[in-house]
Amino acid sequence: MKLAIFDVDGTLVDSRAMITASMQSAFEAMGLVAPAREKTLSVVGLSLLDAMKVLAPAAEDVTHLRLSDAYKQAFWQHRAAGAHTEDLFDGALDLLSRLRGRDDVVLGIATGKSRRGVDHLIERHGFEGWFATIQTADGHPSKPHPSMVVTALAEAGLEPAAAIVIGDTSFDMEMARAAGAGAAGVAWGNHPVVDLQRAGAHMIANDFKELESQLESLWQERMK
Question: In this structure, are residues 189 and 211 in contact, taking their beta carbons and an 8 Å threshold?
Fold first, then answer.
């Protein structure tokens, strides 16, 4: 059996507009200058509090906490208003469907999102029952700590050689490597390809069709 562990933001879902708008709202609510779009996107994948520490390094811990709360509030306000839709990237649904239909593959999620955010994604796209293991920022240290992958492997009853983490950031690649899993980068997300390569990506796909074939090759190599 094989385990495909997907990141969400920047890998399956194009949430860039929502994230940058929510971050701007959070900083403005605190009377602070919002970070540039590129800086905000560079921390996607980190747990929210860790992201705030990067974006506002001179601020005190209490400010980081307040920024995190303001971000959550802004995010859900934008979502309730129907602004900045978080759509699946083209090809994501087809690949997930094909992998789900295989007898030798199970699906997982490892994300810096909250469980509430993942539940919304699952409900919106009809993914109930698709993922055998779901790991979120609510119960783990921030990426690139390997905790999410280690727990996913334990829940699936598999060894690291059977698992591949699919993600768009260096945090995903480092997390995968730290857990002994395969590291599959995608070129359409929030970190440049060169950053994924430096972080130890075993492969980098330019679209979901290429990702599917590369996953199969990497599984064959790792499970000899």
Answer: no
Beta strands in 46-154 (DSSP E): 87-88, 105-110, 131-135
Residue position matching structure tokens 């598999």:
158
Cα dihedral 181, 151, 193, 203, rounded to 10, equals: 30
Whole-number pLDDT of residue 80:
87
> By C-alpha distance, which of 179, 220, 187 is closest to 203?
187
**How far is it, in rounded angstroms, from Cα 191 to Cα 124?**
26
Cβ(7)–Cβ(117) under 8 Å?
Answer: no
Q: Residues in the chain, how many?
A: 224
Low-confidence ranges of the chain (pLDDT < 50): none
Contact 118, 15 (CB under 8 A): no
pLDDT of residue 82: 83
pLDDT at residue 83, as a whole number:
80
Query: Which of 218, 170, 188 lies closest to 92 in space, CA to CA?
Result: 188
Return the beta strands (E) in the chain as ranges. 2-6, 13-14, 87-88, 105-110, 131-135, 163-167, 182-186, 203-205
Question: pLDDT value at position 23?
Answer: 97
Q: pLDDT tens across 46-76, in order?
A: 999 999 999 999 999 999 999 999 999 999 9
Contact between residue 184 and residue 201 where contact means Cβ atoms under 8 Å apart: yes
